[in-house]
Write a structure and sequence with these properties.
single chain; 94 residues; alpha+beta; two-stranded antiparallel ribbon; 2 strands
Length: 94
């Protein structure tokens, strides 16, 4: 885990209430399965990611995102802009 990932654990954001009745989020599992399949085919060469837990989050990079930090930062900025656009059109949640 990178130093940034460790620091992120002390930052507290206010998430919406999490339903803890089901320990598995099937949408998350499907997304991760698709990413794994892409990586196995060689179509996915790096990731910069945020993992959300019931209490907090973590961030990290792997593969090409580690080797090309400027490109990874640009990708994360594009993600941030997309999330902000989606929040403004939905009022903050789906």
């Amino acid at each position: 885990m990178t130093a940034i990932a460790k620091v992120a654990n002390i930052i507290r954001l206010v998430p919406k209430a999490v339903d803890r009745r089901s320990p598995v989020d099937h949408n998350t599992m499907e997304a991760l399965t698709q990413l794994l399949e892409m990586a196995r085919r060689g179509d996915l060469i790096g990731v910069a990611f945020v993992g959300m837990r019931t209490e907090g989050f973590f961030i990290d990079t792997a593969g090409e995102a580690d080797r090309n930090l400027a490109f990874a930062a640009g990708c994360v900025s594009a993600l941030s802009a997309d999330l902000i656009r989606r929040m403004s059109s939905t009022g903050g949640s789906r």
